[in-house]
Amino acid sequence: MQKLWSLEGEYAIIETFCADHKIPAPMPKIEPETMMQNKQLPNVHLRKEWDLRVRTWFNQPGRKLRRRNARVAKAAKIAPRPLELLRPAVHCPTVKYNRKTRVGRGFTLEELKAAGISAKYAATIGIAVDYRRKNRSEESLAVNTQRVKDYLAQLIVLPTQAKQRTSEQKQAYQAAVQVPGQVVPLPKVAAAEAPRAVTAEEKQVQAYVTLRKARGAYKSHGIAQKRKAELKEKKANSVKK
Hints:
Elements: H1 7-20, H2 50-53, H3 60-78, E1 89-91, H4 94-97, E2 101-103, H5 109-115, H6 119-124, H7 138-154, H8 167-175, H9 200-204, H10 207-219, H11 221-240
Helix pairs in contact: 5-7
């Protein structure tokens, strides 16, 4: 029967051999715990000069102060002009947030035309213009048109030539105060309705079904009109025959 090899047996043979030849026996090799279950030996290289390659942000407080000083200097330079351009009141996207009103990018060409000014002139008097946005409702058009008119009522435009400036214009210019935010504030959102009990008629209304039917009718409106016209034409042709 073949004998199985073992580490203890090999060390015993080595000790016997060293004792017979009167030489010191070597220390037994102790396996590290990391060799359990035949796993990889740890060999971590932590000599990468991390402190030379790390990105620091110690200049952030200085940049903050520099930006603030730049804003103050710009406000003093353009005074008494407003700090911000006049922007429209728009509704947030998605069904979840479309009840909220915020400041938009710029006024549409329709809104400026309704207010009686052109887009080029609006850009010279502090009104932002957005050539891409479109008016989807009469309410938004009316609100933003009135917003531009209120701004024009408060606006003081001095002629480029000093000779053409009147004393009234000069006094109004000197008495003007710089506005930090929007000159015309956003319209107030209607107050939320107070909580109340649901009526019997409201319980009978099927809101989801109503919305689905309205969406389906809107989507198939063109096809339905086309089919009605074809049916009407077919009946007219059958009567002629």
